[in-house]
Amino acid sequence: MKIIALVLVGLLCVSAETQTRSPGQLLVDHINSLILSIRNEQTEHDDIYTDQYTDIKKEVQDAVDALTRATEHKGRAQAAHASATADLISDITYQQILEDQVEFITTRRNDRAANFNKKVQNINTSLSLIDGAEQIVNEFANSSASFIQVTKHFNNMFLQATKAGNAGEYAPLLSVLVELSGDGNVSVDNINRIRQLLNELREKLSAALSQLTDNENTQIEVFQARKNRVQDVITLLVNVQGQLTAYIAQLQATITKEEDIINSATSKRIRNQNLLNYASDMCNAFNTEYSDSTGARRKEVELLTKLRTFVEQRVEEFNQYGGDPTDVFASYAKQGSAQAAEAQFLQLRANLRARK
């Protein structure tokens, strides 16, 4: 009965529009229009649901992503900062070790140079005494100098040899002098023997001085080369120290920046979490509304589809309602009160218009 009333309402709504199509056809068109309108409304509702859900999730995910990125960046910066700081400490430690090494080898070189100078001085003193010994031996050979003078000078030579640590080299000469002091016989052979021994001493001391000087020069070259190498490494470490210091400062600035981002992102996350909670409540309500509306539209479409089928099957019958609407009430009067039928019809038409 309600389906017939709805059809009659549609017929009354479309009968005044045009007389070129039959009332039944116009009613089918109107039903199709209602079905299309409902489906369009559902499509719009689907889009709103999808967009709203996507926007809410995106806001939350953006805050989480920002916090995650900032935390990761800060972690990497802190790890790099710790590593660079450890490298800086090692660099400074190595510098100190190498500087201590330079100081050590420099001190040792100075000690060796002082020892060298002392040996050179002793050798030169010994050579000078040998020159004086030759002169006094010549005077002794000419009887212009006494044996006591010779003995005194040679005694100074032996003391100097003892001081220089090479007294053993003077043993043959000492033996000759002891022999002279024993028999008092100063022969030409003895004088020549003394001169020969003095020349041999001079040659040995000169050779020793030359060897000593060569060794010293070699040691100086070795020391300077080693010192230069160590100084080069120290210079490199100083440069690395400067680079590490600048890098650490840069990392510290990055850490501070990321901490600011983390604080901001944390606040944003808390704010967005509150929004998410609120949005979740809205989404739950929206989901309920969406489900209810979707179900209602589905039922409406099913009802209108059935109605359209019903009308299409009775097109000729509905074409008879193209005249006076009171004819409709006459047919209702057979089953009950015409006044009640009219009231029901008017209510159905009002509901249909409100739906549109």
UniProtKB/TrEMBL annotation:
Residues 1-16 form the signal peptide. Keywords: Coiled coil, Signal. Residues 191-218 form a coiled coil. The keyword Coiled coil applies. It comes from the Eukaryota. This is Uncharacterized protein. It comes from Paramecium tetraurelia. The lineage of its organism: Eukaryota, Sar, Alveolata, Ciliophora, Intramacronucleata.
